[in-house]
Design goal:
5-stranded parallel sheet; elongated; 9 helices; Alpha/beta knot; Trp Operon Repressor, Chain A; 2 domains; two-stranded antiparallel sheet; alpha/beta; binds S-adenosylmethionine
């Protein structure tokens, strides 16, 4: 899968693609990326990319012309283009799975108050919010989307790791423990040392249900009504 990111600040993006699991995915050829500096497409001597909003109000807006030129340079109209923005659709497992269906994504990293609406109208296929809060820049939001996506690609991490994660079947994950058996007077739950795989599976499921009910009652209720519906069908 190829990610093309348009940004005014390439440094955090380059650092992310050069680190850890992502760096290995790039080396193995599972992921390809390019980072395009929007400022390279500004036409004036000061390489201006922002201007005051029409109608007044706080802050600046990322100008349409340099952004359109940067988007044209990567043929964005023939590629699926995503604009991370707090006013987009919430990022979810379902949306991630849909975006994984594209071989290439173009992501626009916003700054200031955001980008000129005409760029959204002309180029953007999906406006995506990573949560109900406002970050100061789109680079982190774009990288959150990239990170949530690329781990689903074959060969990046094991299928088993993906299957046992939070949200996969509507519940949060069970707690994990590793050596030592006792840490600051806290013991590993004895069931995990028992070797009874079936009982461990049941304990983990119980932990998932309890945690989901406690911290995400919305998910818990949806899971409960789905489970009740499935039992009714049987
Ligand atoms: N004025 C915008 C608003 O109220 O919705 C916020 C602009 S924010 C300061 C600058 C950029 O950060 C946005 O253009 C967007 O690219 C990115 N951003 C901030 N919060 C985000 C979020 N929750 N999800 C996705 N992108 C976000």
């Amino acid at each position: 899968m190829k990610f093309t990111l348009l940004t005014l600040f390439p440094e955090p993006i380059e650092a992310y693609f050069a680190s850890s699991i992502m760096a290995r995915a790039v080396q193995k050829g599972l992921v390809d990326y390019r980072c395009v500096n929007i400022r390279d497409f500004a036409a004036d001597a000061h390489r201006t990319c922002d201007d005051a909003p029409y109608g007044g109000g706080a802050g600046m807006v990322l100008k349409a012309e340099p952004l359109a030129a940067a988007l044209d340079s990567v043929a964005a109209d023939s590629r699926h283009t995503v604009y991370p923005t707090p006013s987009g659709s919430p990022l979810s497992t379902a949306l991630i799975e849909r975006l994984c269906g594209h071989n290439e994504l173009v992501l626009i990293c916003g700054r200031y108050e955001g980008i000129d609406q005409r760029i959204i109208d002309l180029y953007v296929d999906d406006e995506v919010s990573i949560g109900d809060y406002v970050l100061s820049s789109g680079e982190l939001a774009a990288l959150v989307i990239v990170d949530a996506l690329y781990r689903h690609l074959d060969g990046v991490i094991t299928r088993e790791s993906l299957e046992e994660e939070s949200f996969q079947d509507g519940l949060l994950e069970y707690p994990h423990y590793t050596r030592p058996e006792v840490f600051r007077c806290r013991e590993v739950p004895p069931i995990l040392l028992s070797g009874h795989h079936e009982r461990i599976r049941e304990w983990r499921m119980q932990q998932r249900i309890e945690k989901t009910r406690r911290v995400r009652p919305d998910l818990y209720e949806a899971w409960q009504s789905r489970t009740a519906g499935d039992e009714h069908k049987e």
